[in-house]
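Exercise (ungraded).
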Amino acid sequence: MAEMSMVEALNLALANAMAEDKTVLVLGEDVGRNGGVFRVTDGLIDRFGPERVRDTPLAEAMIAGISVGLAAQHMRPVAEIQFMGFLYPVIDQLVNHASRLRTRTRGRLTCPMVLRAPYGGGIHAPEHHSESMEAMLTHIPGLRVVIPSSPARAYGLLLAAIRDPDPVVFLEPKRLYRAPREEVADSGDALPLDQPFILREGADMTLVTWGAMVKETLEAAECLGTAGTECTVIDVATLKPLEMTPIMGSVGRTGRCVIVHEAPLTGGFGGEIAARLADQGLLSLAAPVTRVAGYDTVMPLPRLEEHYMPSTDRILAAAERVMSYA
Amino acid sequence: MAVRTDPSATKTGRTHAILRYLRPNGTAIGGLPGFAENRQEIVALYRLMVLTRSFDEQAIALQRTGRLGTYASSLGQEAVAVGAAAAMRPDDILLPTFREHGAQIARGVTLTELFLYWGGDERGSDFAGPREDFPVNIPVASHIPHAVGAALAFKMRHEDRAALCIFGDGATSKGDFYEALNVAGVWQVPCVFVVNNNQWAISVPRAMQTHADTLASKGIAAGIDGVQVDGNDVIAVCDVITEALDTARQDHEPSLIEALTYRLGDHTTVDDASRYRNDADVARHWRDEPIARVRAFLTAEHNWSKDDEEELLKAVRQEVDAAVAAYLATAAQEPVAMFDHLHGSLPLALASQHALVTGREGGDG
């Protein structure tokens, strides 16, 4: 076991998958000699060669489109979209092809591709480099949307995504790319898709989140614990398909839930979780389900970025309001 | 091999030659490729074109009587589709659009499967024959990069195969087309791009799509050879695409073929082309239509007789009628089929929705 960052853990998972399965190939802009702009694919070209670690021309829809063709031909492409802000031309390929090839051919052709993209704010990146638009992707039937929140989960979930027989969009919270670091074993063990992770257990309140907001949510839980309110913290991890059982079970015990996400409030994925809780868990609720989310504004440029990002204080304020219901 | 005729000066001063072997009246312009000497091969192409047109007529008739969904006719473009597919080997793959029924038929997709697809049943894309061919592509040009990806897989595995992608003239205005051609050029993959230039993208004529002299010239920016062929001459189409596929397989060189033809029918059964083009223009293009041309050639060069013709028409009619009957006798899938192939296995998270459809559980919520 070695202590490493999420970038290093992702790199390790890619190398493991490529060594294990020769149909796995990595493609995207600058993924070859440059090792990716965040260095996730660093060194892979030396180990696996330029055929399998393939720099593409600069055209995102094409990257996704050729991945569909490769996947239909029994390859397992892992494509990188350099930033989520450049992913939007790819949505045509995701909605019209990747997610439905299996359905429309009754299983004759399949699409085992992974589309990786760094996403989210908090690193003072330029315009168009900081949005969290995961909810748009969760609306696409047949597509899995997976977001890791630690180096070890990044390793295990990326392996799972590559081995999955269907298309997976794998969004990497770039605020967590370099820190925190943690021990990751190169075990080749995948983590389950479709299963939220319970990061902390407490009987008083359930905090549900994913991606980089796991950091602030755990901080808030720590703070609340010190003040005598014990929280369960759940990292949803696989947003689509959404497995609600652990969330429902926890809220059934605590009766209180705060959902935290960086993405804008309206149409955000927190709304889906809240609706499910209202539908199936209403009678166990002791307080309204509350969301702490990004504002419905355009993601500001770096000077105002910290005011956009949901803060630990905002989570604490929401928790206080939820706890105020007797 | 190529007999290139009709060089025409263009506004840029360059000249282009369109590959053509047969005049509209079916007479040969010059030397013919070897396969044209083989009666059986030409009869096979002719039969596929007649079958395609007969399928087309039946599909429209079924749609008009409420037994088929919206349908895109391939009337007048049979030589492009049939010629392209006939040039392929069985283990090449076809990536067609919604107007290339003839190519699918020539590849071994059954008429019943085609009726099922156009009748609104996913099983129509689960071809028993060409198992690795792509299903019909609807969002224009979005399948062109798939061909490059599949061709890259062939190249990486050192397989002697090629991908053939067909699309319309309108598709050449889209980014997907340029992006796919560009990367095919960079990576030198075994891929042949075929434009069915039928002069119309619904109501928008070819001249309003691009200021380029030819669509074939759009290969230049990608470093890919572009060739124009008379798309109403099935011998020319088959010949040029056979050569392009050979080059693709052997040398991993992609190419772009622009087949010039004309959409004699409406865009689809919900279109009315009389809103945007006049009958006289269409009538003029009927003189160039591809089936009469190859029939005239067969009659003059291969002793195609009235009896041969009647026998073929009868056999084609029987084949289409049998497919219509098989299609109409096929019951719809069970509603739960919506979930059957959504993922490799049904995610736990979808179990309750699945149960709702199978009726094993109560109502929503």
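Further reading is listed at the end of the chapter. For now, observe: The mean pLDDT of chain A is 97. The first helix of chain A runs from residue 6 to 20.
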